[in-house]
Structure formats: C-alpha cells, structure tokens
Amino acid sequence: MGIEREWVHRTRNLSALSYRFAVRTDDVSVGRQIDAALGGLRDHLNTASVEHWYSLTAADEPGGPVDVERDGEVLARRQQSGDALGWVVWDVNRAAAAEAGADHLLFHSGAVEAGGTGILLPGASGSGKSTLTAGLVRAGLCYLTDELAALSMASGRLLPYPKPITVKPGSFAVLSDLGPDSGPAPGSRPWAGQEWQVPVGEGTGRAIGAPCVPGFVIVPRHEARAETTLTPLSDTQAFFALAVNAVNLVAHGSAGTRALGRLARGCRCFSLSFSDLDEACRLVLELVTADTAGAPAASAAPGLAGCAS
Amino acid sequence: MRPESVGPGGPEGASRPVRRDGAAAVELDDNVALYDDVGQLLIMLNASAAVIWECCDGTTTLDDMVRELTAAHPDDAAVIGEDVRQTVRKLVELGLVVDAEG
Q1: What ipTM does this complex have?
Q2: Helix A249-266 vs helix A235-244: crossing angle, to nearest 10
Q3: pTM greater than 0.80 (yes/no)
Q4: Residue B13's domain spans which residues?
C-alpha cells in the first residue's frame, strides 16, 4: 500500500473548452500562483466533475524544484514553479484541442472581443499573436484566447478559452506591466519561469469576453524594424491565412472548408505587419471602434464599446 | 472520367466531365477553394480553372468548353484548348472530376 500524499492546496474545478480538470499541490505558495494564473478557467458554477488531475509536488522540499504529473503520468520533473505552471498550461492546451475538436473548428490564433464582435488573430508561433492579444487586452478589449481559438460548428460563434496569456521573453519589455512580479498575490514567491503566464478574468483588470460572432480577421506578423501597417486582405488571402492556421480542418472536411469560406467572406480581413506594439494596437482599435461604436456595452478603451459579457 | 478518355494526349473533346460528389467548393473572389473529403485535399483554383470547374456539369463536352471560353476570350484562343485539357486532366488526376456515364 502506497503512502498517501498530503495535498495542501487544490484549485477549484477548471474548464478549458470541454476539458475538465483541477490542480493540486503540496506547496501553498505554488498553489497561490496556480490559482492566480488559471483563474480565467474557473468553472464558476463549480458543477462540472473533475475528469483530470494535475499534481505539482516538491521534488525535494517546499520552495524548490517541482515535479508535474497528469493523472499520475509524469509530464516534467524538477521544474521551476513558473515553468511547472507552463507545463500544465501546455498540456491543458493540447488536451483542450483534442476534446473540443469534434464540435469546433480550431485555429492557432489569438482572439479578443469588442462590443460583442469577435476578432481573430491567426498566426504561427513567433508571429506575435500572443503579444498582440496581450496588448489589445491591456488596451481594454476582452480576452478570448491567445493560442487556440474555437469556432463552434453549430453556432458559428467564437468561444472563450481564457487560458493565461503566455508571454515569451522577447515581449517582456513591451509588456512589462503585465509581469507576474508587478503585483504578486500576498505570500507568493517571486516568479520563477522562462515564460510569463499572465492571469485574466476577475480581479485582474483583464476582462474575459463572451461567445461572439467573429467580425474581423487580422493576421499579425511581427517584424523587427518593419513599418506598422494594416493591409486589407482579399477573401482568397484570408481563406489561406485561416486554412494554414486551422488545427483540425481535415477532421471537419467539407463542412470546415465551408465554415472557413464564411469566415473569409463574412469578416473584414487584414494583415498586420508590426514592430511597434502600441501602434499596432492603436490601428486595430481604430478599426474596430468604427464598427462597434454603436454596440451597447460598457466602456473599454476610450471610444470603444466594451465586452458583451 | 473513364480511363480511355484520358490518353497520353489528355481528355478527349467529346468527353463530358462532371464534378464528383463529396467535393466542397467555396467561391472566393474569382477563385474557388475545393476540399475533397475522400482525398482530404484542399486546393485553390484560379479564376480560369474555376470557370472550367463550373463547366464540369456532366453535359458540357470538352469541345463545348473550349468553344464557350474562346468566344468569351478571343484574344486567348491559341492557348484555351490546351489550358482546358490540362486543367481537366489535373482535376481527374486529383479525383475531383469523373466522366459522366452514358
């Protein structure tokens, strides 16, 4: 008979699209970091059963390296606490895509909401989509996701998947005010990790958007020293941009292709080449402000209709 | 398209190609995106190929297509015949078009 491990902290039930999980740890300080970082995924009704457990346990002693497991399977050993959280986020992302794929067309894409209108930001890793998403959310738009956008095949709506915003070292300087040590929870240890996992949702100042019909597709491409410009895309160009960033187009086949076509034709589509995040956000805000100014919602960015939720 | 209709020289003028069921076509600008559920293949047809695709209705012969397109684009008459044959041959190779029966 094995020795029962003592868990000193467990999160509330969490939900990533249709993937249900919770996290437990034997380190109170790590637990506080997890609660803060994954708060956007909290199942507020707390009704969904927990189908998967992540366990973060001190490899040696509290405050030291952490081992990460999911349902008893080792994901990583001896990680700094922030990196351990990064492993959880990575695995949740993978599992959320697998579980939601049957009913949703999934994109490698950031997504935000403004006044009930969805804005897709599709792009490969390194395109700047997470940085742009973070900048737009900081500017007052409502967060849907920074990595995996889910379009319901039944309703045609974008669904929120409010994982923490993952900020890579290359963007630390332009998003320094979102850094995890800029406002740590009482009792938290300083952030220790290679990437930031920026919390969203209640109490963070970064609101989560509601399910919404996409109205814009903006394809970001970060280029050092490039002029920051927003350029209209043809339907064909937009279709291509969406198709290459669709995670599960093959699974949805003809229906998915038609959904892509509706998106490309029905949305206003642009490419956004940028080197200056603030200027990029200003261009996007100007664009969506003109279209959503009449939408009834709380104020977000100046002159911009806010989240529908 | 029947194999005998697609010899070394390409499809014959009297053949009547027809779009195969199961291929989803999405019109985009002047182009058409095609997705084939069987071959799990997504391809983009440019404007001229999209017109040929539309003509693949099972009643229009290859010769009819060439005549119609030549009438619409007389400046390109010298190349239209070969373009039509090559496009239809490619669509057949991809399994997106077959020859109408009967």
Answers
A1: 0.79
A2: 150
A3: yes
A4: 3-20+48-96
